[in-house]
Amino acid sequence: EALQEQVLVAAFPNQVPEVHIATFDTGKGEITLKEATVRQSGEVALGKQTIISLADASGVDFGDGTLAIMGKKDELQVQLHIESPDDQQVWLAAITAVLEQGRSGGGGGGGGGG
Q1: In a 3-state reduction of DSSP, which class is residue 33?
Q2: What is the DSSP string of 42-83?
Q3: Any idea what DSSP says for residue 35?
Q4: What is the reported pTM?
Q5: From first to last of its 114 residues, what are the pLDDT tens digits of the chain?
Q6: Contact partners, residue 70, CB within 8 Å, separation at least 6
Q7: Which burial class, exposed, middle or buried, applies to 114 when counting CB atoms under 10 A from its CB (0-12, 13-18, 19+)?
Q8: Residue 86 burial by CB count (10 A; 0-12/13-18/19+): exposed, middle or buried?
Q9: How far is 53 from 59, CA to CA, in rounded Å?
């Protein structure tokens, strides 16, 4: 299952923040970030693709509209700046759920929700 494509600003450590189109494959626990630039013609050009595996993540911090995905050694992997508060909550919940699944051994019966 994947979340809808999300336009966001991704900031990697020691790099200039860039606009990306992000997709999140919750089954694989992978966030795919594609650099996006708008040409003068109005076309969107996609550049470099980066995949963030949540298997390498220890947690996610949230504040000021930014999701910070932390690595196993508590180092920052990437910061995702999402405009809409609703989208922020959707992404935060999805990332948190995948991280919690990973901690509990990945798999097993998923509890209901409601």
Answers
A1: strand
A2: S-EEEEEEEEEEGGGEEEEEEETTEEEEEETTS-EEEEEE-S
A3: E
A4: 0.84
A5: 677 899 999 999 999 999 999 999 999 999 999 999 989 999 989 999 999 999 999 999 999 999 999 999 989 999 999 999 999 999 999 999 999 988 776 544 444 434
A6: 57, 58, 59, 60, 61, 76, 77
A7: exposed
A8: exposed
A9: 12
